[in-house]
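Exercise 7.
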Amino acid sequence: MSEARPAATGRPAQADLDRRNRWTFGLGTTGRDMVYTLVSIYLVFFLSDVLKPPREEFLWASSLILVARLFDAVADIVMGGIVDNTRTRWGHYKPWIAAGAVASAIFTVLLFTDLKLTGAAFVIGFALVYLLWSLSWTANDIPYWSLLPALTLDQRQRERFGSLAKIFATIGLFAVVVAVIPVTRALAGSVGEVQAWTWFAIAVVVIMLASQSVTLFGVKEPEIVVDQERTSMRELAHVVFRNDQLLWTAVAMVLFMTGYLTTTTFGTYYFKYVYGDESMYSPFGAVLVASQLLGYAIFPALSRRFSRRTLYTAATALILAGYVIFFFSPTHIGFIAVAGLLLFIGDSFITLLMLVFLTDTIEYGQWKLGRRNGAVTFALQPFINKVGAALSTQIVAVAVVIAGVNPDRPADTSEAGLLTIKLGMLVLPPVLILASYLIYRAKYRIDKDFYARIVADLRERGDLRPAP
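Solution. The predicted structure, written as tokens, is:
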């Protein structure tokens, strides 16, 4: 007689479910980060060196990017409340992920299209399209990352989910930073420079829609069951401002992201004007992405041996060493590659650490305030990214104008102008990153033991249990 088997439950084993969710959630970040990289790093370069509007129009357009991002960053918190209150047969998250992906795809293409406007019409039209892109991106971004804490309560599993997602995100980043200059240059000969960027944007959004479909159809949500009333708009401020660990994490992340994005946004300008060879940006981009992939790949192994605080300290030291080498090295790709390796391995560690810090504040907020608001908490991530991107874009735009660069004659840039680019790219960012680290050391206190006590207390109170 054959051995009796347990009755099928109709649900996959937990290990199989975790594996499926880890890969299908992670794959979804590939196209998303291609789009985000294209907009956050290259939009200001597309404006200044491809569309080439008059200097006054460029400054107005870049300033309105700042305003639009700050407005949308505040709207992120409201979006988080909407997602937390969403009840559909497809769950809290997937309807918003799908709608946001389609809408942001449309507006991404429009951002990299010449709308044939001039003067005030150009500034207003560009700002409106950018605001619509930002709002539609929010509709996708908040529910997407809010999936992560809904998939598992285990800290190590969250690190594994986050690490794999960041690996795929970095692959998306890699595809854009390595391909954007050579591909648009190659296409420009047949379709024109502006149209080349439009076609590149179309290709990127197609990949985003495909990778998001993997998440939408592949992830199965073993949601955490929490019995609570819907969160009113009036309660959102209390959810954010009374969760002290969430607030300090957000402040530290804003400073870090502003520094990091300022450096990466300056990259194209550095190689075009300071280095003197724009084509060398692609090899540097390859170093950037390889460093981040290496960091994300080794992080889970290191996190089993060292505490998060130790890893954060080591990562900050790597970043600061990288900036010092970059600033004082000669304009040779070998020295710059070594600096980039240190910079972006450290960046990958901190990016992943801040993701799991933010995730753990969800249970902390539920423990302290009696409410679980995952989407509202994760609304702080796009809020942070947008504020950081807004500030970094404005820093770069102002520095480029002060430097007096000429897109058509890059060799004419003065020594003072070149120094302005170097100071903005390699001196201001490490100051912000160091400030971020000091805030984390002084204020963040959710370590492994404290988190375990939080989860145990929530379960004992009956406030946390797995879905049946």
